[in-house]
Amino acid sequence: DAGVIQSPRHEVTEMGQEVTLRCKPISGHNSLFWYRQTMMRGLELLIYFNNNVPIDDSGMPEDRFSAKMPNASFSTLKIQPSEPRDSAVYFCASTPPGGREQFFGPGTRLTVL
Amino acid sequence: GENVEQHPSTLSVQEGDSAVIKCTYSDSASNYFPWYKQELGKGPQLIIDIRSNVGEKKDQRIAVTLNKTAKHFSLHITETQPEDSAVYFCAASQVGGGADGLTFGKGTHLIIQP
Asked: Rounded to the nearest 10 degrees, how much is the dihedral formed by the CA atoms of A8, A9, A10, A14?
């Protein structure tokens, strides 16, 4: 079975550009989480959805960040405009109904020059 | 919000010895405490978890203990092997309480010396 799929795996962009990260959760899972990992701050929760509805977005750093989940099999995390301090690895994770274990994708390594 | 502290940040042990990683949390409402292992270039992978109504859980060479009163929990790995080398993260959350997102500790880099 396919796990959580993230694309792209690597993204290099210049400051001020728009960046869109994509996630396909495991089929049948109904909760989806976005995390960011940096050396300084570790793994931080940005936002999570339950049944496509955003439940907690208190971790979204600023208005430059936005996330959507238009259907059960797809989510995006957008940064506009991007800044060098946004450079990090962004992970998507999903859980099944009633489940606790979060299954993580391989991550997207974002570098903003 | 929840705050999770993890120690040590780096742990080096001889192959075959035991390793212990400790975490504390701040929010008494947290009820779920997973441990994740992250290998280089990969996403975190769950290795064991414990709920707040259980004090200890074991799975082969891995065990986790939870002290709700003191708000701390620990990961124990016995008979360590080279493939145990990785970064380990503890986490806490309130599953089912509208706060299912995980709050992670800063991680422990476990090095198994041959």
From this structure: 30
Per-residue pLDDT band for A88 (boundaries 50, 70, 90) equals: very high
Closest partner residue to A56 (CB to CB) among B45, B46, B99 is B99
The answer to whether A104 faces chain B, any CB pair under 8 Å, is yes
pLDDT, mean of residues A17-35: 97
pLDDT beneath 50, residues of chain B:
none
Q: Residue type for A23, please?
A: C
Mean pLDDT value across residues A99-112: 95
Whether chain B has a CB inside 8 Å of the CB on A55: the answer is yes
* Mutation site for B-interface testing, chosen from A32, A45, A101 by largest number of B Cβ within 10 Å: A45
- Compute CA distances A37 → A14, A88, B45, B114, whole Å: 20, 6, 14, 30
Closest chain A residue to B37, measured at CA:
A104
Separation of CA B32 from chain center: 11
Q: Which residues pair with B59 in a beta bridge?
A: B62
B88/A43 Cα distance (integer angstroms):
12
- The DSSP H or E segment spanning B1 is none
